[in-house]
Amino acid sequence: MATFIENIKMLNEQGELVETTITIDEGKIIAIGGQKPDGAQVIDGNGNFVAPGFVDVHVHLREPGFEHKETIATGTRSAARGGFTTICAMPNTKPVPDSVENLEYVKDLIKKSAVVRVLPYGSLTMNEAGEKRTNIAELKSHGAVAFSDDGVGVQQASTMYEQMKDAAKVGAIVVAHCEDNSLIYGGVMHEGKRNKELGLPGIPSVCESVQIARDVLLAEAAGARYHVCHVSTKESVRTVRDAKKAGIRVTAEVCPHHLLLEEMDIPSDDANWKMNPPLRSSEDKKALIEGLLDGTIDCIATDHAPHTQEEKCCGMVGAPFGIVGFETAFPLLYTNFVETGIFTLKQLVDWMTIKPAEIFDLPYGKIEVGASADLTIIDLNKEKTVDANEFYSKGRNTPFNGWKAKGWPVMTIFEGNVVYKEEE
Ligand SMILES: NC(=O)N[C@@H](CC(=O)O)C(=O)O
Ligand SMILES: [Zn+2]
Ligand SMILES: [Zn+2]
């Protein structure tokens, strides 16, 4: 039976909101702006905004291996609540999808319990240990969406170079967490002003940028497509900008928290403010915003990284890096960047839908006839306070608890089915 969504507004090419209707059948969009087909089930959009389901190319679902932090079931429900319908799962699980067998195992788990589309990464090295290289061609043919050792940087240039050459042969994308281990210095936050005030060890900006600089040169030499994870420093932005100018096939993502927060916002030695890369300086934050606006940075990804309260209870030094992101990403960005006139609504939506989809060759992230019926209905006027205790994610680790924001998803539709509906 067809579903007819009425009383809804969508963005046109000019970035204006226009009233429309959307008709869905068999999981696909079959009409935009048409009349209700006879017998169709009706969804009242209540005059709200409808966006393509969000696409997040950088998330951690923790299953298999770390189900106490998150499972595919809880993580994908959290994604749906945040308006995400396509998410790419990083391979730092146990086991790591570094072989066809392990990848098939992860795909089975996804099939069993995901409520949105989950596309698994393959790793670049066996067990993400940085030594033995994985078989990119084989993993790609079994459905790995891209390749990364996220969680750690690939330390050896030759390992990265060889993997890039293999990736180039089969059109695979190499996605890099850039971090030079010799420049971490045991740091738990940015090496700047605030870490000194708090008496905590710092991670200098070069720890990230130096590896991006190496990698863009390797990508050029290998002829590979290269995507940089969670860019956090102004030097990283400049390096990506220069590489693009030189014609190197590089793309980059930025996380909501790096756009919204800076080191001086960290109130105390609280591990809900600990993530990798760390919150940088206000100049870095400014450079990230400029980088998005001038096209140096291509898209936004949450790096949703749930950890338990026990792990995050007791200060930064002992805690793992990472914060959750699905359920706050859009409202926080909408409120702080669109309502303030820094981004247009179309820019923000594009950075969370069509842009990441294009980089990763995914046929999602747009509302058009024939596309998968993946939609997010958002109440742009609805104001709510972030309450970590009501997250669908198992993770409560967010620095945004208590923030007021507008623009909350009220319904998420995946392949024509309602996978999230706001509880009244
Ligand atoms: N971002 C983080 O702080 N943590 C991520 C790993 C990663 O993205 O590097 C995690 O898996 O917890
Ligand atoms: Zn990372
Ligand atoms: Zn990550």
From TrEMBL:
Residues 48-236 form the Dihydroorotase catalytic domain. Belongs to the metallo-dependent hydrolases superfamily. DHOase family. Class I DHOase subfamily. Its cofactor is Zn(2+). Substrate binds at H60, L61, R62, N92, N276, H307, F321, G322. This is Dihydroorotase. It catalyses: (S)-dihydroorotate + H2O = N-carbamoyl-L-aspartate + H(+). Keywords: Hydrolase, Metal-binding, Pyrimidine biosynthesis, Zinc. The keyword Hydrolase applies. One of its GO terms (cellular component) is cytoplasm. It holds the Pfam family DHOase. PROSITE patterns: DIHYDROOROTASE_1, DIHYDROOROTASE_2. Pathway: Pyrimidine metabolism; UMP biosynthesis via de novo pathway; (S)-dihydroorotate from bicarbonate: step 3/3. It comes from Ureibacillus terrenus. It comes from the Bacteria. Its EC number is 3.5.2.3. GO terms for molecular function: allantoinase activity; dihydroorotase activity; zinc ion binding. Zn(2+) 1 binds at H58, H60, D150, D303. Binds 2 Zn(2+) ions per subunit. InterPro entries: Amidohydro_3 (IPR013108), DHOase (IPR004722), DHOase/Allantoinase_Hydrolase (IPR050138), DHOase_cat (IPR024403), Dihydroorotase_CS (IPR002195), Metal-dep_hydrolase_composite (IPR011059), Metal_Hydrolase (IPR032466).
